[in-house]
Design brief:
By secondary structure, the chain is mainly α. The chain has 19 helices and 2 strands.
Length: about 475
């Protein structure tokens, strides 16, 4: 028994929750390092402060994948209970994040936020495989990428929109997140929960009995329990997953470098507006601690020092808004990539490996271009547009290649285990890998983007390891 082919709007509705998920990820990716810098973090320590995010994914995604494979709720179905739980927790974390008063608080909320996003996200990947026949899976993952692109672009522009259009201030006292960022995160929380609810109310899942019929009533393996099943899957993962894992390793190392260090790298190299260090302008005691008056207001060395600090901080906040806005271009170009691929794959065959390789090469060149455009913010449109082609492919092609080659009964678990190749490179980067490689090239923070470019090129040529014809070739029906 074959799964019925779905119409465009059916696939759109079941993927729409990704708009909210990407609002959470885009606000995190474009603004989190800015929050850490605002709270006093040194730029070289920022990747380590992000480590909670990939750690949450490493732990949460295989567990959620297993649980969603083995869940059936008479009203919400198999995957939708996890969509709803993750959306509620993520929305709470988004509202609280910009009100963090200390670095440890922001890092803790980042852990909660990323774990919660993962609760929603991984079942979404599995839902595409649940609902669509193999002939429509590339199409389904590309539509997800289209929606992700929309979310990335809109969410990345929210802080600048709040300041420029709604006239909500992007300035704040030292150590306080600007009001424009706070409002942007609240909007993100509302969009996250709302879009997930749209998917929940418009999408019906196949029952366990229907799934068995689609799988030809194949004999199911005995359930050995969650821990043994997950460990067994790690030990016996298919060869295609290992090969794709090499590509994923280099790809996600590159994007983690961008998310964590693009703001300090670009505000200083492109805009000449690095975050001013308050210690250079404020009065400090013999231990180097900042001094405050009776009302806990920072004491500056002079009125001139205060004016200079506020002017530099304003330039930094304006540059940060613009960096976030221009980062959103990679979401926009990934959306264009997905839209073109959606129309093409609905009628024609594609070579998934070739598409992914070319897209990653373009993204690598986009990162490398940043080194050569100091003082020219407009060229960032070109850089991030090229990066968007890589991002659009990363979000669709590996999953399409994998889903064509693994057991559909374990799709949630397989997608969760595959996530290992996403989070391990991020953990290595967070533990000092990206800063170490950057400093091998030079002390300037822009070289973090150079590292990202080199790693995307390595990811591109790693596609040559993939030889499984079923994974490479996509034929429309």
């Amino acid at each position: 028994m074959q799964k019925p082919r779905l119409k465009f709007w059916d696939i759109w509705n079941m993927s729409f929750g990704f708009l909210g998920i990407q609002f959470g990820f885009a606000l995190q990716g474009s603004t989190m390092s800015r929050i850490f810098e605002t709270l006093g973090a040194e730029k070289d320590n920022i990747p380590l402060l992000w480590i909670a995010a990939p750690l949450a994914g490493l732990i949460v995604q295989p567990i959620i994948g297993y649980l969603s494979d083995n869940t059936w709720h008479k009203t919400l179905g198999r995957r939708r209970p996890f969509f709803l739980l993750g959306a509620i927790l993520s929305s709470i974390a988004l509202v609280l994040m910009p009100y963090s008063s200390a670095i440890w608080m922001a890092a803790g909320l980042l852990l909660v936020l990323d774990a919660s996003i993962n609760i929603s996200m991984e079942p979404f990947r599995a839902l595409v495989a649940d609902k669509l026949p193999d002939s429509q899976r590339s199409y389904g993952f590309v539509i997800q990428t289209l929606i992700i692109g929309i979310g990335t672009w809109v969410a990345s522009n929210l802080p600048k929109f709040m300041n420029n259009v709604l006239d909500i201030s992007n300035e704040a006292p030292p150590g306080v997140v600007p009001e424009s960022v706070k409002v942007a995160f609240i909007v993100g929380a509302v969009v996250f929960l709302g879009s997930i609810l749209i998917t929940i109310f418009t999408t019906k899942e196949y029952s366990p009995e229907e799934m068995k019929a689609f799988n030809g009533n194949a004999v199911e393996e005995e359930d050995k329990g969650m821990i043994k099943t997950i460990l067994g899957t790690y030990a016996l993962m298919p060869r295609i997953m290992k090969k794709l894992g090499v590509v994923q390793f280099f790809s996600w190392f590159a994007f983690f470098a961008m998310w964590t260090l693009a703001n300090p790298a670009l505000t200083s190299h492109i805009y000449n507006a690095p975050k001013p260090q308050i210690e250079e302008f404020a009065k400090v005691d013999e231990n180097g601690d900042i001094q405050y008056d009776a009302d806990r207001v920072i004491l500056f060395n002079s009125d001139q020092a205060q004016t200079e600090y506020e002017a530099r901080d304003k330039r930094y906040n304006e540059a940060s808004d613009d960096v976030g806005s221009k980062m959103g271009i990679y979401g926009l170009s990934s959306m264009v990539f997905a839209l073109l691929l959606t129309f093409y794959t609905s009628k024609f065959s594609i070579n998934r490996r070739l598409v992914h390789m070319v897209s990653l090469i373009l993204g690598g060149l986009g990162f490398l271009l940043m080194l050569f455009i100091p003082g020219d913010p407009e060229m960032l449109y070109v850089s991030f547009a090229l990066i968007g082609f890589a991002w659009g492919s990363i979000l669709s092609m590996p999953y399409a290649m994998l889903s064509s080659s693994v057991d559909s009964a374990k799709m949630g678990l397989m997608m969760g285990v595959f996530n290992m190749f996403i989070v391990i490179p991020q953990i290595i980067a967070a533990l000092g890998g990206v800063v170490f490689l950057q400093q091998l090239i030079g002390e300037e923070s822009i070289h973090a983007m150079t590292v990202a470019g080199v790693f995307l090129l390595l990811a591109a040529f790693s596609n040559l390891l993939i030889t499984d014809k079923k994974a490479i070739k996509y034929e429309p029906v």
